[in-house]
User: Which sequence fits this backbone?
């Protein structure tokens, strides 16, 4: 049985400076700027927020039934209707599209790091256990 408590590692100044440089570079991308603007627009749109909230509440309330494959056709229809209503909101669509584009930039950056260190950077940093 392992009783020793391991101290978590800390970042060296060199690594911290490199991380800051990468973060600054990501923040300057068009994709990040678009994502930030889309998030701001969404936050200001109470109608879009309400539609998303309704979908999420319904989804949460049906989650266990959905996982067990026990949703009725009526419940599935209602969930699909709410999903469509959410997807029809221009600010929701803009936010999700901008998020996807910035996510792609981050994935490309992580891939470049992986190539440089010859290791799956994103995989090593992912939460979870072996």
Assistant:
């Amino acid at each position: 049985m392992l009783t020793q408590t391991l101290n978590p590692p800390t970042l060296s100044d060199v690594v911290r400076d490199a991380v800051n440089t990468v973060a600054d570079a990501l923040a300057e991308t068009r994709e990040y700027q678009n994502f930030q603007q889309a998030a701001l627009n969404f936050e200001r749109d109470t109608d879009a927020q309400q539609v998303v909230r309704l979908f999420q509440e319904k989804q949460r309330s049906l989650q266990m039934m959905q996982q067990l494959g026990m949703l009725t056709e009526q419940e599935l229809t209602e969930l699909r209707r709410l999903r469509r209503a959410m997807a029809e909101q221009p600010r929701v669509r803009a936010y999700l599209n901008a998020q996807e584009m910035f996510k792609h930039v981050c994935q490309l950056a992580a891939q470049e790091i992986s190539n440089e260190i010859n290791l799956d950077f994103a995989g090593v940093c992912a939460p979870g256990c072996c």
Residues 22 and 109 are 9 Å apart (CA to CA). The chain has a mean pLDDT of 91. Residues 29-42+89-118 form one domain. Residues 90-117 form the longest helix (28 residues).
